[in-house]
Amino acid sequence: MIKNKEYYQAIDYDIIVSTVSEDDGGGYMAYYKNIDGVMGDGKTESEAVADVKNAFDCYLDVALKNKDAIPEPENLNKAKKINISMAASKIKSLDIYAKRLNTTRSGLLTMLSDKLLNGDIELHPKP
């Protein structure tokens, strides 16, 4: 999978928003739960969230340029069941193919989706 800026911007990171005491200037502070040091603030919660998202964009530019590891939420790669409809004959063919590769149907579909998302398989629409 190509992990570029758009990839990381599409991840649903948790953003924590808290109030800032009046003694400290008031308003709100926001930060990413999984990204140390990326913070923003504002007079309102929405301003603080917009500010932290802007800071995250700057963080991504630097981290990608320097080839730094960018943390991802732990639940990002958690398996999730899906329900798809497909002709029974195709399912049988997939199961046979998966067995040849010593994997399951889910394993085969995961391998194929990884290849597609990494750009190893290109799909061209028919004219």
TrEMBL record:
Matching InterPro entries, A to Z? Answer: TTHA1013/TTHA0281-like
Lineage, top-rank taxon, reads: Bacteria
Q: What is this protein called?
A: HicB family protein
